[in-house]
Design a protein that fits this description.
about 150 residues, mainly alpha, 6 helices, globular, Four Helix Bundle (Hemerythrin (Met), subunit A)
């Protein structure tokens, strides 16, 4: 793997540890918890992280073989259906593995390629990687607060 890709893969892996360490401590009882007045449960947030990581792998990094049904994005709100901890953990493991594969397949020169999405406009792939890393960390912080203070 090329040096820039290696460094950015390390950034992704380290940046995601905020989420993975928290995920290791979650219980089934945590999944429906919310922090009022927020409408989103922990289960929804975990699923949402996976949905968006898979969308990035497919739409930003161009992995055409990725199959994603981003139910949290499509529905736009928490329906209370994300309550199976084992399924959620497997899903976000798959999303991480898929995004990792997409990062590994990106050449050093390709990190400067500009992509455009309706969600965030024009960004280089390197900038887009920063966006997905901070997206996951942002929601991990929300999950941490809900675990601590939610009901």
């Amino acid at each position: 793997m090329e040096p820039r890709t290696t460094a950015l893969l390390a950034l992704f892996s380290e940046g995601r540890t905020r989420f993975t360490k928290l995920l290791d401590t979650l219980t089934k009882a945590d999944l429906p918890k919310k922090l009022a007045p927020s409408p989103n449960s922990i289960g929804f947030l975990v699923r949402h992280i996976g949905d968006v990581e898979l969308l990035f792998a497919k739409n930003v990094f161009g992995l055409a073989d990725v199959q994603v049904h981003a139910s949290t994005v499509a529905k736009g709100h928490d329906t209370g259906e994300w309550t199976d901890l084992a399924v959620l953990k497997a899903y976000v493991q798959e999303s991480a593995d898929t995004l990792r594969r997409a990062i590994e397949a990106t050449s050093d020169a390709d990190w400067d390629t500009v992509i455009e999405t309706k969600e965030f406009g024009k960004k280089t792939k390197a900038e887009a990687l920063g966006r997905i890393v901070t997206h996951t960390a942002y929601h991990a912080g929300q999950i941490g607060l809900v675990v601590k203070y939610g009901a």
